[in-house]
């Protein structure tokens, strides 16, 4: 069965959105198979977002992800990798459709509440490394 890695970012935890976000995945019909609250070390945040290391916003992204605890989760279900990305919505919350997590709950790209793996391979790898 397909699986993906979902991480509620520090703003989502600080704003009390953990239950809301978990509910959306549960109501969709996906199955929670792993969960932990985790303070991400700087080195792991840099590794997680290494593809973006040359971007001007990279230092602020690392500061953001390490600014407080995150919730690391493994979820499974048919077609979950692209479906989770749809539930999450576009990277820039102002372009995310209403009804999506970012579209309903966020306004800034740099505070966009949740991460979802972008491929089945990355999903497996991220679950293996974090949970
Ligand atoms: P993730 O699920 O977190 O990987 O987001 P994504 O796949 O929708 O976007 P991407 O992988 O391209 O970027 C990773 C994260 O970097 C985004 O979710 C944002 O938090 C941050 N980010 C991307 N682009 C920008 C930007 O232009 N400015 C800022 N401040 N942050 C950005
Ligand atoms: Mg991404």
From TrEMBL:
The active site is at residue 115. Its EC number is 2.7.4.6. Its cofactor is Mg(2+). The keyword Disulfide bond does not apply. It catalyses: a 2'-deoxyribonucleoside 5'-diphosphate + ATP = a 2'-deoxyribonucleoside 5'-triphosphate + ADP; a ribonucleoside 5'-diphosphate + ATP = a ribonucleoside 5'-triphosphate + ADP. ATP binds at residues 9, 57, 85, 91, 102, 112. Keywords: ATP-binding, Kinase, Nucleotide-binding, Transferase. GO terms for molecular function: ATP binding; nucleoside diphosphate kinase activity. Residues 1-129 form the Nucleoside diphosphate kinase-like domain. Residues 111-131 are annotated as: Disordered. Belongs to the NDK family. This is Nucleoside diphosphate kinase. The chain holds residues 82 to 212 of 212 of the full protein.
